[in-house]
Design goal:
The protein is mainly α and about 180 residues long. The protein contains four helices and two strands, in the order H-H-H-E-E-H.
C-alpha cells in the first residue's frame, strides 16, 4: 500500500490551499478600501473564490469518502495522529462554514451573489442590518479560526519535514517521492 496520497487528493488539497490563501489575503486587503468600483470588483472576486471553495469542499469530501487516505506513518505517536484527525475535522468544518457565512453576509447585506458574473445564486436570508452585523462578525471569527488552523497545519508539516524528517509532507506533494531535507 502506498504511503502517498492519490493524485486527486493532492490536487484538491493544493487547489483548496490556493483558494484559502488568496481569499483570505483578498479579504484582509479589501475591507479597508474606500468605496469604489475597484473595491466592488474585489468583493465579487472574493465571493467567487469563496463559492468556488464551497463547491470544492463538497468535491473534497466526496473524494475522501470514496478514496481512503494512506495509513499513518509507522512510529507516529497516537497523540499526533489524534491531533491531526481533530485538526482535519475542524478544517473540513471551516471549509463549509466559512463560505456559507460569507454567503449569508452577502445576502443579509442586500447584495446579490452572481457566481463568476454569470450564475445568480439565491439569497439565503432577506436583507437585514442586524443579521448583516451578526454574519459579519461570524465571518471574521471563522476567517481568524481558519487562518489559525492553516498556520498550525503548515507548522506541523514543517515540523515533520525539518525536525522529524519522517516524510509526512512528501505524501502530499505532487510528483515522485523524494526527500526534501
Amino acid at each position: 500500500m502506498s504511503h502517498k496520497y492519490s493524485g486527486g487528493a493532492i490536487a484538491l488539497h493544493w487547489l483548496m490551499a490556493l483558494f484559502i490563501v488568496v481569499g483570505w489575503v483578498m479579504g484582509q486587503y479589501m475591507v479597508d478600501l474606500k468605496f469604489s468600483p475597484d473595491k466592488l470588483q474585489l468583493y465579487n472576486w472574493h465571493k467567487w473564490i469563496g463559492f468556488s471553495a464551497f463547491l470544492l469542499a463538497f468535491l473534497r469530501l466526496l473524494w475522501r469518502w470514496t478514496h481512503r487516505p494512506p495509513p499513518a506513518l509507522p512510529g507516529q505517536p497516537a497523540w499526533q495522529r489524534h491531533a491531526a484527525e481533530v485538526t482535519h475535522v475542524l478544517l473540513y468544518l471551516l471549509l463549509f462554514a466559512m463560505p456559507l457565512s460569507g454567503w449569508l453576509l452577502t445576502s443579509s447585506s442586500g447584495f446579490p451573489l452572481v457566481y463568476l458574473g454569470l450564475i445568480p445564486l439565491p439569497d439565503l436570508v432577506a436583507k437585514n442590518a442586524e443579521l448583516k452585523d451578526f454574519f459579519k462578525a461570524v465571518h471574521w471569527y471563522l476567517s481568524t479560526g481558519l487562518a489559525a488552523l492553516v498556520v498550525l497545519h503548515i507548522a506541523a508539516a514543517l515540523k515533520h519535514t525539518v525536525i522529524d524528517r519522517d516524510g509526512t509532507l512528501q505524501r502530499m506533494l505532487p510528483g515522485r517521492r523524494r526527500p526534501l531535507v
